[in-house]
Amino acid sequence: AEVAPGARFGPEDDQYEIGKQLGHGAASQVFACRRLRDGEKFAVKTVDLRRLCLLGDMQEQLSRLDCEVRILKELRHERIVNLEGFHKTDNWYFLVMELVRGGELFDVIVRNKSLSEMEARHVFLQLLEGVGFMHSRGVIHRDLKPENLLVASSRPKDGGQLYDVKIADFGLSKTIGGGASLARTRVGTPQYWAPEVLDVQKRGGSYDHAADFWGLGAVLFVMLCGRYPFDGQKQALDEQIRTASYCMSGSRWRGISEAAKSLVRGLLRVNPVDRLSLEECLKHPWVLGQPLPPKTRL
Ligand code: ADP
Ligand code: MG
């Protein structure tokens, strides 16, 4: 059967009808869907197993999908997108998730050019909650970026918006501890790769949850200025990441507090050992919430 609006999936007694498309990733298409038995709305991430092999080793891709499902099942938290159910056919994977209606944080940033510090802080605090929770459960996300952060709701506050976000896309996540092998594979999205992720195969080393704090630093950077911290073609990009060469001067950073910049610096540190931890983030002056400057429009 085709996977498109109007199509149905699921077992005979628990069917869903596919609605409009919400987004897509490298191997997935995500649609709104409706559970027929009660009309409740969800989102479904569909993965075409025939196309999956184009992305590399089929067995590895499949085990990654299983891993995504297993991890999502274990993580029940307000700041993490909830997995409702899961269905598999010969050619398709269906991950039924809670429907997050506000779209990607990425689009919110693009639409507004950047977020104010007050807006960014609200998001950042929520991300700390979500990331703190998953790390306490031994899960590293490894792909934190504004495309994988979904806006659940938004309400006005002090001339800005409080965006409530949920962390999505555990497709590259990994469980550590408990005897499981440490994170050894290089995964993620180049612009957001931490230096130790970049070099992990070369060095044969391993990295842990500090990679998510690098990701948080990159997300914070993007929220504040509306630009990637690292950008360019493969070679140049890798070099920028390895040396944490990013720039916080120029018109986009004018008016942004020193506290915000110091938090970014503390997160985007090459050596994972030097990077701020969850506890340090929570104690950081910018997070603790002294008054923030109003947004200066570009
Ligand atoms: P991939 O692993 O292929 O990147 P994602 O899980 O990131 O797939 O989903 C791709 C896109 O689909 C997201 O960036 C987002 O736009 C949309 N999306 C994913 N999950 C949901 C959801 N639960 N509610 C609403 N939109 C979603
Ligand atoms: Mg994604």
SSE arrangement:
Blueprint: E1 8-9, E2 16-24, E3 28-35, E4 41-48, H1 49-52, H2 58-74, E5 83-88, E6 92-97, H3 105-112, H4 117-136, E7 139-140, E8 149-157, E9 160-167, E10 174-175, H5 195-198, H6 200-203, H7 210-225, H8 234-242, H9 258-267, H10 278-283, H11 285-288
Antiparallel strand pairs: 1-2, 2-3, 3-4, 4-6, 5-6, 7-10, 8-9
The structure holds adenosine-5'-diphosphate (ADP) and magnesium ion.
The site of adenosine-5'-diphosphate has 22 residues, from strand 2, strand 3 and strand 4.
Q: Can you give me a brief rundown of this structure?
A:
The protein has 298 residues and is an alpha+beta fold.
Q: How would you describe what is shown here?
A:
With 298 residues, this protein is an alpha+beta fold. It has 11 helices and 10 strands. Helix 4 runs antiparallel to helix 7 and helix 7 runs antiparallel to helix 9. Bound molecules: adenosine-5'-diphosphate and magnesium ion. The site of magnesium ion has 4 residues, from loops.
